[in-house]
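From the methods appendix. Each design record in this collection lists the tokenized structure first, followed by the designed amino acid sequence. Records were kept in a plain field format so they could be parsed without special tools. The example shown here is representative of the layout used throughout.

RECORD:
FOLD TOKENS (275 positions):
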């Protein structure tokens, strides 16, 4: 059951995560916390001495103004829908903010972040990856081109039999139980009997939860898996994706798996990821 949601509010005026989180909280009658970030200016150490203090301070003021504007937009959406909500403004380095949001998300049912816009700051990208690996909670990534509010008309589940995919399906159960239809999609060459049975067994499992489900296998030898999934999502008019989040951390660097990276960079549908 989804009763507590946290959302990372992007600094762009076009950020879609806040409004989407409000609509998700409305669907579940949940509380939602909007978190905005004031980032410490990033100044290369080799030129630190040559940067006027006034310039550094102006960068910080711009970041603070963007964070306050993000909070104001979020509050407007939440008050319009008469939601239970709260706000929090963090002020740290980008990596520090990402760690704080991931730690906060451990005490929520669901985290929502925005997909970074091309050529924008890498902050949102770092936050999304840190939450995915560090929160231990499901995370929805909202495309920067998203226009619709939270919708579950057609849920597409990306299934490869892995632990991460199984975790994502379990985490997405509250969404699938509210959905109109659920389609399990498997990408690969022509399946053998074992793979076909695995997909059917998962369908039977979801059907026992009262979910209307079908199974679809995509044979896509000339496409990578991410492109195959997103192409089919567009063709089938999917409104919500569910998939495992793959990758590992190397020292302080997060390394996404190929499929996860591909979906992160080119997604057109809100996607629930679990690691």
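DESIGN:
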């Amino acid at each position: 059951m989804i009763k507590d949601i946290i959302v990372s509010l992007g600094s762009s005026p076009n950020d879609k995560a806040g409004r989407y989180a409000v609509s998700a909280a409305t669907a579940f009658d949940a509380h939602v916390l909007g978190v905005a970030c004031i980032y410490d200016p990033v100044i290369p150490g080799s030129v630190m001495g040559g940067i006027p203090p006034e310039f550094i301070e102006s960068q910080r003021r711009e970041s603070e103004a963007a964070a306050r504007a993000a909070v104001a937009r979020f509050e407007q959406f939440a008050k319009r829908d008469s939601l239970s909500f709260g706000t929090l403004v963090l002020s740290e380095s980008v990596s520090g903010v990402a760690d704080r949001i991931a730690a906060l998300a451990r005490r929520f049912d669901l985290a929502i972040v925005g997909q970074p816009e091309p050529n924008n700051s890498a902050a949102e990208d770092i936050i999304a990856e840190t939450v995915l690996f560090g929160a231990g909670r499901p995370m929805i990534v909202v495309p920067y081109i998203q226009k619709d509010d939270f919708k579950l008309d057609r849920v597409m589940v990306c299934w490869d039999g892995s632990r991460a995919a199984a975790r994502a399906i379990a985490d997405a159960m509250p969404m699938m139980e509210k959905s109109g239809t659920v389609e399990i999609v498997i990408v690969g060459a022509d399946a053998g009997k074992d793979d076909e049975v695995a997909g059917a067994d998962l369908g039977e499992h979801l059907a026992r939860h009262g979910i209307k489900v079908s199974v679809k296998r995509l044979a896509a030898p000339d496409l990578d898996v991410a492109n195959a999934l997103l192409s089919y999502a567009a063709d089938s008019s999917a409104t919500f994706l569910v998939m495992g989040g793959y990758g590992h951390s190397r020292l302080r660097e997060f390394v996404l798996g190929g499929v996860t990276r591909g979906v992160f960079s080119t997604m057109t549908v809100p996607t629930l990821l679990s690691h």
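APPENDIX NOTE: The two ends are 19 Å apart (CA to CA).
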